[in-house]
Design goal:
mainly alpha; 77% helix
């Protein structure tokens, strides 16, 4: 019995999936507003807190260190939003297929797993850009914090955080695919479970020793430590970015393998046609 020849990777199929998600996004104003609303609220909240801390330190002996540390808050918030929105943008696009019960149709089409993942990654960047770019310019206007003024470091921060977001989003998508929408809450909560160990708003040194070991397993920890070193000590640590990149490659590879395994399990269990609660 002759096996069918494997399908070649097709950017046309990736583009078709991307157009599908763009049409969904374009046709819904609430979806677009939601992409901007939460980053804006967080930027304002942490921005005003930063302003308060900076003013509160103006009359004390710790003005230098406390003022610089306060300045790092809004930067950390903006980078956290890249991580969170990158994961959410990936996962929500996948959930659109679950909500519309379209996953089985996609799996029976010529679309390969790699093409599907690439389309979700591209859509994640688009969704993130819609919400993130306006907020960075508002941060300049309201608080005088220019993330883009950090130069080439922003590219390293962004690349590492978005890959982490994709890896976690891919894993969450696999769990939802295998166990159905009953596991959907994982998509919305998993990043907040990671936040304390990722040391977003404080250095890893404040954690208890056992937790520090776990923190340094997470790629975002290296990014946020690098951000604080750049803003407070004006030093860019390329070594931290390199270590984060290596960990991200391991994390993303593990996520791809986990997604493929859970997809195979879903096919064996016959749950692709039963994507409800």
């Amino acid at each position: 019995m002759n096996r069918a020849a494997p399908q070649r990777f097709s950017l046309c199929r990736v583009g078709a999936m991307l157009r599908r998600y763009l049409y969904l996004l374009r046709s819904s104003l609430p979806r677009i507003l939601d992409l901007i609303y939460w980053p804006l609220v967080q930027m304002l909240t942490w921005g005003f807190l930063q302003t308060y801390l900076a003013k509160a330190s103006a009359g004390g002996p710790s003005v230098g260190r406390l003022g610089l540390a306060a300045g790092a808050l809004i930067g950390a918030m903006l980078l956290w939003d890249i991580l969170f929105r990158g994961q959410l943008g990936f996962s929500v696009s996948f959930l659109e297929e679950m909500w519309s019960r379209n996953v089985a149709n996609l799996m029976m089409s010529p679309l390969s797993i790699g093409e599907f993942i690439l389309a979700l990654m591209a859509m994640s960047i688009i969704r993130l850009s819609i919400g993130f770019l306006p907020v960075t310019f508002l941060a300049i206007l309201f608080f005088g914090f220019n993330l883009w003024g950090l130069g080439v470091a922003v590219g390293f921060f962004f690349a590492n955080l978005i890959v982490t977001g994709w890896a976690i989003g891919l894993f969450c998508s696999g769990v939802v695919l295998r166990y159905g929408l009953a596991a959907e809450s994982l998509v919305w909560t998993i990043m907040f479970l990671m936040q304390p160990l990722a040391c977003v708003f404080y250095p890893a040194s404040v954690l208890p020793k056992p937790l520090q070991a776990f923190a340094w397993i997470l790629p975002p920890t290296y990014v946020f430590e690098g951000l604080r070193a750049l803003l407070i000590h004006h030093t860019f640590h390329a070594d931290l970015m390199g270590e984060a990149f290596v960990l991200n490659m391991i994390l993303f590879g593990a996520a791809v393998l986990a997604f493929r395994r859970m997809l195979q399990d879903a096919r064996r269990a016959g749950s692709l046609l039963q994507t409800g609660e």
